[in-house]
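Predict the 3D structure for this chain.
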Amino acid sequence: PPPAFSESRLLPIEMPPYMSLKFGIDPGTITITPDGIVRYVVVAHNRNGGAINAFYEGVRCSTAEMKSYARYNNGAWQEITKQEWKRIDDLNSRYTRALSTQGICRGNAPRNSVGEMVQNIRNPVREVQ
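Done. Predicted structure below.
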């Protein structure tokens, strides 16, 4: 099941200024599985506040792919019925690419720890990959 998330803990994901949605990740939801998948809850809301949506996702740095496990809206989680790995570069969701390059992955591997991921999300480092 998706972990509980808190809007008050959200770390903003650096996005282009023209984007109409703001995205943040709850650092308390980030985990690294034994097989190297980084799972997290990301929250999207419009710049004026209002409705929020959250997504429980996983990124596999070794193949630059992501998978959505569940969506949160109207106060409840709904499991994604067709869970499949998708290439990050093929997605319409720019936040997944931004999140993976800004903080989750270092090249084709997850960063060493959740603490290092959180530090890099707070202060994105531009690395040559």
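The chain is about 15% helix and 40% strand.
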